[in-house]
Amino acid sequence: MRAVFPGSFDPATQGHLDVARRAAGMFDEVVMCVLTNPKKTGRLPLAERLALLADMTSCRWLR
């Protein structure tokens, strides 16, 4: 079964990764969806947020 973890991840933190790890204990795969909140001023461009999460995807269960 797959879990979807949406968020702006601006920036992605160890706390986000901790939530994903906990979800991995309950699901086969965790999909982190990087979104933009139009009501907030972002700190990092989308490309940088995706790159940060890509660095975290060395885990088999994280996409």
From TrEMBL:
Enzyme class: transferase
EC number per UniProt: 2.7.7.3
Keyword annotations of the record: ATP-binding, Coenzyme A biosynthesis, Cytoplasm, Magnesium, Nucleotide-binding, Nucleotidyltransferase, Transferase
Domain of life the protein comes from: Bacteria
Keyword Nucleus assigned: no
Domain Cytidyltransferase-like: from-to ranges: 4-56
Record flagged with keyword rRNA-binding: no
InterPro entries reported in the protein's UniProt record: Cyt_trans-like (IPR004821), PPAT (IPR001980), Rossmann-like_a/b/a_fold (IPR014729)
Catalytic activity: (R)-4'-phosphopantetheine + ATP + H(+) = 3'-dephospho-CoA + diphosphate
Gene Ontology terms, MF aspect: ATP binding; pantetheine-phosphate adenylyltransferase activity
Pfam families: CTP_transf_like (PF01467)
GO BP, sorted A to Z: coenzyme A biosynthetic process
Designated name of the protein: Phosphopantetheine adenylyltransferase
Organism: Lentzea tibetensis
